[in-house]
Amino acid sequence: MSFGKLKSARKAKEFHSYVKPDGSSLSDAEGLTASLNTAPASDSTEQIEQLAGSGANTEPDQMQHTSAHPAQTPRTDEVPYGSLAEESQEVQPDLKPAPSTVPGKAPDGPVQRNAETTTPVPLNDCHISLPASLQIRESSRHGRGIYTNTALQAGTVVMSIVPHVSVLSTSYLDQHCSACAASATESGLKRCPKCKTVYYCDKACQDRDWAWHKHECSALQTWAASAPSPDVMIPSDAVRCLGRILWGSQKEGPDSTWAREIRMMQSNRASVHSSSVEDHTYLAHSLVRYLGVRAPADLQPFSLSSASDLVDLISRFTTNTFTLTSASLSPIGICVAPTVAFANHSCSPNAVIVFPRAQGTPASKEPSLNLVALRDIAPGKEVRISYVDTTLPKDLRQKELTEVYNFTCQCKLCTKPPTVDPRESLWCPKKCGGTCPLPTEEDNLFRCTKCGAGVTNVDAVLDAARIGQEALDKATSLQFRGELSLRSKGYNATQLTTNIIPILVSTGLTPSAHPLLAMTRLHQELLIASLPTSLSQESLDEVIRTAAKYNAGLQPILPKGHPIRAIALAELGKLLAVDEPASLASPAQASMFPPSGPPRLKLAYESLVRAHEELLVGFGKANGGGHVGRDVRDAIARLEKEIGVWTSGIKNALEDSVLAQRAG
Ligand SMILES: C[S@@+](CC[C@H](N)C(=O)[O-])C[C@H]1O[C@@H](n2cnc3c(N)ncnc32)[C@H](O)[C@@H]1O
């Protein structure tokens, strides 16, 4: 969900609510390289050299960054951002100077606003797809970032580009086209007869992808031939994506704009977090195997002069990779788009990344990555996305940001959180309607902010939260584990969510609190997956109730128009619009949720209308809310007709009974 960035396959596993980890990713690499040791970062270069068959590292380790990252260039021209007189004098090739209406504004997020300085970044003929309404500036705190030159309204498509490379996650390879990422239609996809791994919509998509796939095809075949077990016959999406980056650089040439843009992406190699070293090492080992690299010299055709360059590339990749999502936000792969990768992070972002699959976008321009304004953004402000799931509590967000991206977030939500953050909240123990912060091991003296009642069941709450998190991890891994049949995976996971949710609710967690919200989302997903085989009034009503609780949980933590909220509302509306297997409409049921009959249709209609409004923001007004927006519009039109038929049916019946009475 991602929205935003979900860098690296490893992250996808942690993205509990919206990212469906395919279980392949780095675990593929783990399977293949399990016998390799996992030395600290400083040894990783040597390890890769060894894997490549060169024994000791005989090549001088050049340790060079292939691009001059502005952060490493001494600067003498720093000016406070928005200092117009100075700013307009600066040389800004390809960039429109900030308009003169810009007062001294600092980007969103940082607390010490006044201390922030930013300077324009020279792009050296790269990133020509950056619209004139934006510019890249470098700040003293967050490195380079995307800033607006003009006012942007919520729902504006700020930028729309085709990523340099994109690949599908292993479990989606046979469900989506490997060129345009469209999902299979009724006519199906066509498989590459040689590698039998990738699929395409048609010949046009296959031809478009051939520049990459001609290298990939034989690499996939070689990999499969030597795979130690059937579940690792296909390399992870991360390995395949890196392969495409290297073949792309080879095709375009090291001095091409394409390759320079890749090299301009930030590398955190020098400060890689210890917890990521192992992943990076596995990835490097898998990559050299995939590329057929046996000696350092074999890296040269890829413009990598040493294993050190390879380590750098992997750091760039993990720091800058986006999750490729479907139009309804299912994570289906990963992609690299260097221009949008300049976007910095905030836990309350003013923009999102989506792949709306808008009507009229040709397949040759898909997957189309859209940066969309989530709120109105004033001129001169920084455009920020979230790299992590913002429904998570602060500690979990910070952990991921530190481990994967090497920074501590200083956004307002992290530095000045509300007294009660709904992500970590309990209902008042006296049931006054107020809420209390969730107790922690360190701090458990919490009171209701409304009536002052103290939380008494601290141990029970702590236990429930711990069990909930463990169950969430377990249910998620069950759901996506390869070896179980689809039905038993779903069944086991549903048993877990069914058992744990009542425990979390009974200890007083609010619907927005972690891990209850994530559990509810997973439960909804599992129930929807089982609907086709077990559609009954009861099962439909149960999933509607779950979807309603999930929506209620999202409301306080995501702003209106956030794509996750919009999709959740659309899902609820669509569920309410499903034909009832056995309508229970009776006076006794009138107060129950979900209602039956016409009130249900009315609720479906209202939910879909609201969803459509939010989709227009989250997926872009110019995109009509994307594919889901279109779908919802059609559903609204169908409901309008249906409600019209009901209304006229009732009117006719009433008129008939009046006539009958008169006649009688
Ligand atoms: C995808 S890059 C974003 C662009 C990057 N600033 C650059 O100069 O290329 C991610 C990196 O930017 C930095 N970054 C992004 N958001 C940040 C934030 N809110 N605070 C501090 N550093 C941030 C971190 O170094 C992170 O690893």
UniProtKB/TrEMBL annotation:
The keyword Manganese does not apply. Keywords: Metal-binding, Methyltransferase, Transferase, Zinc, Zinc-finger. Residues 34-48, 55-74 have a biased composition (Polar residues). Transmembrane segments: none annotated. Residues 177-217 form the MYND-type domain. Residues 132-388 form the SET domain. GO terms for cellular component: nucleus. Residues 1-124 are annotated as: Disordered. Gene3D superfamilies: 1.10.220.160, 6.10.140.2220, SET domain. GO terms for biological process: methylation. Coiled coil: none annotated. One of its GO terms (molecular function) is methyltransferase activity. This is N-lysine methyltransferase SMYD2. It comes from Trametes pubescens (White-rot fungus).
